[in-house]
Amino acid sequence: MAQLLVVDDEASIGHALRQLFEYEGHAVRVARSGAEALALVEDRPPDVIFLDVKMPGMDGLEVLERLRARDPSSVVVMISGHGTIDTAVEATRKGAFDFLEKPLDSNRVLVTLRNALAVRGLAERVERLESEVESRYEIVGASFAIRWVLERVERVAPTEARVLITGENGTGKELVARAIHRLSPRRDKPFVEVNCAAIPSELIESELFGHIKGSFTGAVADRAGKFEQAHGGTLFLDEVGDMSLAAQAKVLRALEQGVITRVGSSKPVHVDVRVVAATNKNLEQLIREGRFREDLYYRLNVVPIEIPPLRQRREDIPMLVRHFAARLQQTDGVPRREFSQEALERLQELDWPGNVRELRNTVERLLILARGNPIDRADVELLVGGPQGGGGVGVGVAQAATFQEFREQAERAFLLQKLREHNWNVAETARALAMPRSNLYKKIERFGLVRERAD
Q1: What is the pLDDT of residues 268-325, one digit of tens each?
Q2: Cβ distance 50 to 24 under 8 Å?
Q3: DSSP codes joined into one string, 235-277
Q4: What is the CA radius of gyration of the chain?
Q5: Which CATH number does the domain housing residue 415 bear?
Q6: Which residue from 194, 228, 319, 389 has the least number of CB within 10 angstroms?
Q7: Which of 306, 325, 355 is the endpoint of a domain?
Q8: Which of 250, 273, 306 is the last residue of a domain?
C-alpha cells in the first residue's frame, strides 16, 4: 500500500482521485493549498504526490520547487487544466516526474502512478538517487524524452503493429526493440535480430529468406532464413536503410502476404512474424534518392519511435553512469568505485557523439584506469576529455585529424598520467618508464605539460 498525497484546490478533483486511489488499495491524503501540502509532507512524507499547477496563493510550480529542495527524491506528478508546452517543460525542469492534463483519464492516471511507484521503489533500493530513475527493460533515465519513449513502448507492445525505431548510433534502438518483444504476446517466442548493414548485399536475401542446397556457390545444404527462425515471434531488422532494393521487394511481399520464398526455390513458406525495424538513416531522403521503397516505408512505419541522443537528455547521465558501474562490477569484475559529483557533472558537459554506447565504454575505462576512489573530475579530464586545450585521452584523441596527431595526443595523455601517478617527480617517472630523464624533460617541454595547482 502506497502513501499518496493529492494537492488541488478543486474539491471535486481531490475527491475523485481519493476514490480512484483508495479503490486500488492506497492510503490517500488530500490538501487544498500549497501551504497545507507542505505541512502534510513535513508530517509524513508520501510516496507520490499529485500536485495541481494553478492554485490560489502558492502555485504548484512553487510548491514543486520547495518539495524538491526539501527532498530531491520526491516523486511529483503535476496536473493542470490549462496545460501548455511551456508549463510542462518548466515542471519537468524543476523535477516533476510527469505532467497530466485535465480532464484526467483514470487509466492514464493509474499508469502514471504505477510508473511513479516503480521509480520510488528503485530510488529507495539504490540509496536515494538524486532524481527519479526509470530502469524498466534496461532503459535507464528519468528525463521527459526517455519517459515518452517508454510510454510509447508500453502502448504499442501489446499490439501487432509494426514499429520503426529511429535514432543515432548508440542510442539504444535494440533495447527498445527487445522491450517491445518482452511486453508483447509473443514474448515466449523467438526474438531474431538481423543487422542489415553487416551482411553483404549479395547474401542479405539468403540471410532473411533462407536458401536451398545448390542455389549458389557455398549453399551445401538447405537453410532456413531469419523470417522462418522468427516464426511466431519478433523479427528485428536493424539498420533497415542498408537493405538492397531487391531484398526490400521480398520483405514487402512477406509483410503483405505472410509468405517468403527461399533463394533457389519456388515453394512458398508461410510465416507469422512481427517486424520491428530500426535505422539511423533518413528513410524519407533515401526514398527521394530512389534507394528505399516508399511502399515498404509505409508498411514499416506504422508506429514510429524516435530515440533521443544522449546530448538531449544529459540529466540522465548520472543514472546511466551508476547503472553501468553496478552492472560492470557485477558481471565483468571491474573494481568497485564511486563517482564524485564533480566527475558526474563533467561527464554531463560532454557531447557524447557515440551516445549511450560510448558512455558505457567510458564508464568501464574509468573504473579500470582511474587512480582513486571516488573517481573525480581530474580522472574524467585525463581519461575522457579535458577542458578546452586540455589533454584528455577520450574526446581529444577521437577528434585527431591524422594518425600522427592521434599518436601525439595519446602520448601526451599517457605522460601526464604517469607524472601525476609519481606526484610529478620526474626522476621517478623516468625510472618507471625506463626512459632517460633528459628525454622526459624534452617531452614535458614539447607537450607543454604543467603541474596542476592544488586548490
Answers
A1: 899 999 999 999 999 999 999 999 999 999 999 999 999 999 999 999 999 999 989 9
A2: no
A3: EEEETGGGS-HHHHHHHHHHHHHSEEE-BT---EEE---EEEE
A4: 27
A5: 1.10.8.60
A6: 389
A7: 306
A8: 306
